Fold this protein.
Amino acid sequence: MPERSEFEVVIVGGGIAGASLAYFLTERGVTDVALLERESQHGYHSTGRSAASLVEFDSIPTVQRLKAMGGNFLRHPPSGFCDNAVLNPCPVMLLYRRGNLSQFEAAVDGLRRDRIAFEALNSAQAIARVPVLALLEPERAIMLTAGGRIDVHELLTSYLRHARSRGAMVRTSSEVRELVVENGRCRGVVTDAGTLTARWVVNAAGAWAGTIARLANAANIPLQPRRRTIVTFAPPPNLSVSGWPFVISEADQVYFAPESGGLLLSPMDQEPIAPYDAQPEDEVIAAAMERLRALAPAIVPHTLKRKWAGLRTFSPDSVPVVGEDPRIGGFFWLAGQAGFGIESSPAIGQIAADLIARGATDRFDASVLSPTRFVAPSSNAAR
């Protein structure tokens, strides 16, 4: 029997964004879905290379609300959603040092507004939790008490498993080479295995979302992939780190956390780069170690266990782009999740599924995510 070629929705990209949308669409009864991933496995690029943490704080209020919505799902997934917990509790400590101490009160106010669980700490209290920190007396910290480490594999495979069981076609090693556009509407995709027609084509291609948009001649939204590096290493002998929180210092541009008996660290690098199979650079890691020396000198390692890099893709205002393109009907953006795509996937996936399934959502103000915010009114094509 030949494989189907006509669908209600074709999703381009099988990372966490596309997988979550497939899950929530099929949950809503939209089961005529094809999910296409170019690589031979799902989540190869950004999804599989994340630090996989739930950090329900962001200086951008829209992003913070998306994270909080995602956190509620991760802590309390639907019955039968997963075989193992998708969130392992681990508090998150946000440090406010000389470089960003002035932002402390605004952060506290925002967390209270969004009802996110936290504790405010002085420097002595923070050091009591993480004894290696070299904090000065006026410096502060915020402990997000309901944060955690996300089991990305469990989350991704659970999305995919349920989407498949409800009828979605999930295909890997399937590259989209062209988009079919007729009379101002996207009608399908051309892959290396043939053409699939659809009422909706969803651009969930991560760092390659700009490339997919150009194939459709969609709105010119300048999405920017940026590299993010992570390393792991052993702590000093006789230093127990397993009970430490996930520690983030914007002032020092590093974060670190317990990881499989050792420590994980990121330089928090954000180098703009063309989409590719990202690799770490030794200079970036070396500079991070010098910054770590100013924050927690006792844990600066002599050798590393592992190092890797991934891509995080940003919109011009660092808020995700979710919604139908203003120029090409049927072309739907699900892109620009920056560094919070995994933790916000339950929220963004539901919002996108609502918009596709019924044209609106009552769970979030979708206008703040719409691609129309980047397009001058005069250039909006009438349909």
Summary: The radius of gyration is 21 Å. Confidence is low (pLDDT under 50) at residues 379-383. The helical segments are 16-27, 61-75, 104-113, 123-129, 152-165, 209-216, 282-295, 341-358.
